[in-house]
Specification:
Length: 438
């Protein structure tokens, strides 16, 4: 029996459709990659110019103008080369795209000519026209634009290596680890090519900590381009809230800018520089690498244990009048003396539960030893957290341990109750981190 041939998909399907034009697509990819490298040259040149200015800023007469001119030309050549290569990539991809569209329409026309009259009688001319024109036209956007500037391929490489290396929110797809999200900021800056809206979109679409990432990416562009380079609607929005305090602080945007400038000027003077009304003179310092520090060496995710499974999971032990909430996914109590104990094998654990407006206090014991009192009240800006770390401990000896939470029946004055809510726990163990194993 003849095996059914497997349909091609993705890039292999694209090359199949392209036929003899696939060489143009490959050329577009190569030119685009080299263009991206050339676009980095101006940033390197700016660094070299700033280094020269900082080195001799206090004595303008010692500045070597030939060095500045040299790096200016390097930046110009890099920028022009990058733009020309990008133009070449787009031309190659567009030529390939339009030739592919032409070929597809010829093949579709031939196919329609061989269809039965019954099919043509039951299908409107509008539907056939839509297939021939609009549906085929959609291929052009993918072929002409995706290959020259596809940031998602870079994103996928990062996902493959770093997405599973998650200590911040282990056992879930959400990852706010700085290494991964720092890379998303760089992707936005690199593929955004200095365009503020494009940088914002790409760094946001990378996902994960997608409020901070685009904010940091645009902060970098703000330093490079200045506030005036931002679109008018952005500037107007910032000016409207400029003196409004941020939540939980007495800082406004304008105050934060002023304080940052104050700190910068203080550091400049402390390190031998000068501050005048119109300029800063900064003493050039050789960077010194700090020693490598790993906050969680050899610490990896082991498992999650949900309180909803307490009846069938021996790792949970409840004493007292614990009530169900959120369809049984949370156990809570306000009664002093009620206890909940979590037993686990590993080197650490995090207990997850409520920070709420009626949150109370509880004492926590690890292996029978008192650690601290936790306070689960939270109602700032009318917000509550119902799935947050309420207690954690790490760096225990590998083995069996217990975490015992005892409700105190006490609260701070502004709280509406004494509730302690527990949703589950995350267990950690010693092991090799996923990216170390790749």
């Amino acid at each position: 029996m003849k095996e059914k041939q497997r349909k091609k998909s993705g890039v292999s399907r694209l090359f199949e459709i392209a036929g003899e034009k696939k060489g143009l697509l490959m050329l577009a990819g190569v030119l685009s990659a080299v263009s991206a490298l050339c676009m980095l040259v101006p940033y390197w040149s700016v660094y070299e110019v700033l280094k020269e200015l900082l080195l001799h800023g206090s004595k303008i007469s010692e500045l070597d103008s030939s060095v500045l001119i040299h790096w200016g030309w390097v930046a110009f050549v890099g920028l022009v080369a990058g733009l020309l290569l990008l133009y070449g990539a787009l031309m190659a991809s567009h030529v390939a795209a339009f030739r592919i569209l032409y070929g597809l329409r010829i093949r579709l026309s031939g196919h329609i000519g061989r269809l039965s009259l019954g099919y043509l009688n039951g299908t409107s001319t509008g539907a056939i026209k839509k297939t021939m024109e609009q549906n085929v036209e959609k291929i052009e956007n993918f072929v002409a634009h995706t290959i020259p500037d596809d940031w998602t391929k870079c994103w996928q490489m990062l996902e493959d290596k770093w997405a599973r290396a998650n200590i911040c929110n282990p056992g879930t797809k959400y990852n706010i680890d700085a290494k991964l999200n720092g890379a998303y900021i760089v992707i936005g800056l690199l593929y955004g090519e200095g365009d503020i809206n494009k940088t914002l979109e790409i760094s946001t679409r990378c996902g994960q900590d997608s409020d901070c990432n685009p904010s940091n990416a645009l902060a970098v562009l703000g330093i490079i381009k200045g506030f005036s380079a931002f679109p008018q609607e952005y500037r107007e929005a910032i000016e409207k809230i400029g003196d409004k305090p941020f939540v939980h602080t007495n800082y406004s945007f304008n105050k934060a800018v002023e304080r940052t400038a104050d700190y910068a000027e203080k550091l400049i003077v402390e390190n031998g520089g000068k501050v005048t009304e119109n300029s800063y003179s900064i003493v050039l310092q050789e960077p010194v690498a700090l020693p490598m520090e790993d906050a969680f060496p050899n610490l990896v995710y082991s498992k999650r244990a949900a309180i909803v499974d307490a009846d069938k999971d021996s790792c949970w032990t409840l004493k007292g009048n614990w009530q169900d909430a959120e369809n049984g996914y949370v156990k809570y109590s306000e009664q002093a003396g009620d206890e909940i104990t979590f037993t686990f094998e590993g080197t650490g654990a995090s207990i997850e539960g409520w920070w709420v407006k009626n949150g109370g206090k509880a004492d926590v014991y690890v292996d029978g030893i008192f650690k601290r009192t936790i306070d689960c009240f939270y109602y700032y800006a009318k917000q509550e957290h119902r799935n947050i770390n309420i207690f954690h401990i790490l760096n225990l000896e590998e083995g069996k341990h217990t975490i015992n939470i005892v409700v105190k029946g006490e609260k701070r004055e502004e709280s509406e109750g004494c509730a302690i809510g527990v949703r589950g726990a995350v267990v950690y163990k010693n092991g090799t981190k996923s990216y170390d194993a790749i």
